[in-house]
Write a structure and sequence with these properties.
Order of helices and strands: HEHEHHEHEHEHHEHEEHH
Radius of gyration: 20 Å
Number of helices: 11
CATH architecture of the largest domain: Alpha-Beta Barrel
Number of domains: 2
Distance between the termini: 42 Å
Largest sheet: 8 strands, parallel, barrel
Strand content: 5-15%
Length: 271
Amino acid sequence: MSVEGKVKPTTISKLLAMKQNGEKIAMLTAYDYTFASIAEQAQMDMILVGDSAANVMAGYETTLPITVDNMIYHAQCVTRAAKTPFVVVDMPFGSYQGNSDVAVANAIRIMKETGASAIKMEGGIEIADTIKKIVNCGIPVVGHLGLAPQSINKYGSYGVRAKEQQEAEKLMSDALALQEAGCFAITLEKIPAELATKVTKALDVITIGIGAGNGCDGQVLVMHDMLGLNESFAPKFLRRFAQLHGQVLNAFVEYKEAVKRVDFPNENECY
């Protein structure tokens, strides 16, 4: 179907069918209306309103400072534009790790106020009971294993996770526990490709990889990174599908110079 053709909204059933049929799932982050509109036009399968907004939108070094209110704002912007992609919203640090009743309340609020399709949570078996409670409320949940940016202070780096056998075995156990808890999908971040493939084959639910090889059911990248807007971030797994930093910089410089030499606006640009 052409980009201009009418497309039905993506559902969990459709995503699971894609896994079963061997069709890869494409997911990107988005944080505002304009880029979400472009993702809609591109017929993106899924959009993640990631807590990475703390980094690329707000300039924080980690994802920890972003709040539930912040996430709701960004998700509202995205869902106004994204009518067919399946929209997932990250639950930010501190909104679910402690009291499960607070976690349920935050998940319900995010869903009610944003119109998103699901929420995403970092962690393994230690949050399985909380996930069960949220799923029992009718809220779809995406899990997240491997590199967990919300736990940066625990691990101390953003290095590859689960390289050693013990951690790899725990990750597999966690993945099965998240599936049992009711997650319909699990993000696998920055783990060995062989392990990610093994986990994907062991699960009935969807896996979405970022820095986890091509054996996952789908892939996700941070929009700003894959567009080349962030020159300082260049991990091995990142492919830049555009180099927009240089193009935007040149446009800004050309605009400034046109204003300085009184070339903008010209006669054709005046009323």
